[in-house]
Amino acid sequence: MGAAPASIAVAGGGISGFSAVRELRRQGYTGTLHLVDAAGLPYDRPPLSKAFLAGTLDRPALQLAPARWYEDNGTSVIADTVDTLEPGNGMGPPVLTLGSGRELAADVVLLATGARARRLPLPGMDLPRVFTLRSAGDAELLREQLAPGAHLVILGAGLIGAEVAGTARALGAAVTLVDPAELPSAQAVGPEMAHYLQGLHAAHGTTCVRGTAAAITPDGAGVTVELADGGRLRATAVLVAAGSEPETALAEAAGLAVDGGVLVDGSGQTSHPRIFAAGDSSRHRNPDGRPGRRFEHWDAARRTGEAAAAGMLGIDPPAGAVDWFWSDRYGVHLEVAGSMAAPGQSVLRGGPGPGFTAFRLGPDGTLAGVAAVDGGTAVRAGRKLIETGRLLDPAQLADPAVDLRRLARGKA
After folding, report:
1. Which residues pair with 339 in a beta bridge?
2. Measured between alpha carbons, how far is 280 from 257 in angstroms, rounded to an integer?
3. Which CATH architecture has domain 7-116+245-313?
4. Which CATH class is domain 331-408?
5. How confident is the model over 26-81, as pLDDT tens digits?
6. What is the pLDDT of residues 3-29, one digit of tens each?
7. Which CB contacts under 8 angstroms, 24+ apart, belong to 158-161?
8. What ranges do the domains of the chain cover?
9. Is the CB of residue 306 less than 8 Å from the CB of residue 20?
């Protein structure tokens, strides 16, 4: 892009938008910088299904940085919605029209609009006791439903559904998880780890039902979830945790290329040279032009925000990193790096419980993925092994006596 833009506007205050702002200032950018989000100060989302939902973390503790940080770093935070994006198309800079009617022009715009909860195509989604979880406000509404004597039915047993199940059980609510898959999250964590995680639900009193919801109907003070096989589940509340969909309305209306996300290159640039995108709303376009997969996790959103900051400044983005995410439920901490669905074989270290580690070893003998329970050291070593592409002996991976840190350094 040449010289750094005189002004940048960031639409969205999640981790990707915040990371872009922080990286811009870290790189020495001195231009005008605006961040627009309806919630005001950017806040972190992972605690929404855990400590914040449980009531042990308050709203100020969610903030990614205090108000003083934005003042000290010359960043204007505007608590408003973004209604439209006029791209300019060579006739002028892009312009954001806010819900208040204010027009905000900037030399470059970053779309960090995130994702919305996926709605299921079934009757009853708009009933007052049916919830989704994407914001702090959503979590506060759901928290009101969780107490001893309550029965929460969760539609979707992925990461968010499983985490909320753990929190709801800790608050004394009965929980039923409904998912069509025999082993939910197997694609994300591998079948062996998914089997272990499924056992945690049973061990903590969560009922798991394999099935699909067909309708949600009012039932006195609660609701009934009607399943496709004819089963019925009475509940005081329902959480729909069926994944997310990228927020691409602004990009589509502005004529940007969109295909399951706003299409971007490695620097976050969209099909318009003055508009960038990052986080859950974006989707990387491969060098051959085909869209890549969206990786909807906190670390990916952070990294794409930082890459977009570099792109907006016309400098090389940070080096790519191995995909990584974490999840907490029932007092158990899970970390996963790489791909547990890659071709190859599973190699297990330890038994179910703390330290249990599953490796995904590719057909060529290199590591494709690693998942561990309360095993951050194993995952950090695994990430290094994935990055270096070392040929590995399955017996060494499986042997608890082999120090994975030394193995990652090539000394084992």
Report:
1. none
2. 16
3. 3-Layer(bba) Sandwich (3.50)
4. alpha beta
5. 999 999 999 999 999 999 999 999 999 999 999 999 999 999 999 999 999 999 99
6. 899 999 999 999 999 999 999 999 999
7. 158/184, 158/185, 158/188, 158/241, 158/243, 159/185, 159/188, 159/325, 159/327, 160/49, 160/133, 160/241, 161/239, 161/241
8. 7-116+245-313, 130-242, 331-408
9. yes
